[in-house]
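Appendix B, Record 12. Input sequence as logged:
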Amino acid sequence: MAQLPSQNLRIVVLNNHGGGIFRMIEGPRSQPELRPFFETDQRQTAQKTAEDMGLAYTLVKDEAALAQALASFFDASAGPQLIEVETSSPENYDVFAQYRKAVQGIRLG
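Logged structural output:
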């Protein structure tokens, strides 16, 4: 018998629909073959995975929908949940580059 997920389980999936992480890695990012060999365009979502695992599923495509979904995401009575944030691969890189620049000057300890 399958064990049910913990009631406080929360999962956030960032889905750029295919290999966008390679835009953030120094070697592949600079290759002219980035798009045809490293990125794989796909339109799958995590909805069926969430359903199979008994998780409430929410797909968000913009900041307003994300804010609305997050309003109840951490509610303890809501049960296990998965939020999937649909993103753009090139935009992911730009945001990550801004984040990297912002944290470079931070010293820990």
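Strands lie at 10-15, 56-60, 81-86.
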